[in-house]
Amino acid sequence: MILPIYAYGQAVLKKVAKDIDQEFEELNTLIENMWETMYNAKGIGLAAPQIGKSLRLFLVDTKQIEDDEKEFEGIKRAFINAQIIKEEGNEESFEEGCLSIPDIRGDVNRPSIVHIKYMDEAFNEHEEVFEGINARVIQHEYDHIEGKLFTEKLLPLRKRLIKRKLENIKKGKVHVDYRMRFAIKK
Fold it and tell me: What is this structure's pTM?
């Protein structure tokens, strides 16, 4: 089922999400719905807060942006109860966007390597190191479960320049090709 994506201004996007325990009955259905929602919106990552659930769950599929030369190997997986252990490497700037903040993009500096511990759908624990685009997408989605948005990492001038656009997104004054839930009712 395709779910609405919560837009900038929704309180759930600013909360630190709660861990998921193994007794969570609808987890597989939730994950399936999140994949469907993410692909419908043409995203490469989606976090549970973006669909209104304050849970430590996010999905990443960078396989869809691999190129023919295989300059990097993409990943496709769900991250449950993730904890970043360490970020390292050179700070790299790259333009980011977000399904919850449509029509706004900006350069964000992030370390090029991330060490992360997480559970998969069967609650098996993993500890892995990711680099490059995979690390960046993981860090972006991880920020969502920590109640942070990429716009907070933009330079002050860029933040000022997008202020009106952000207010318009809150009010639903934005056109997207996917379902959204806005903070202020029209």
Answer: 0.95
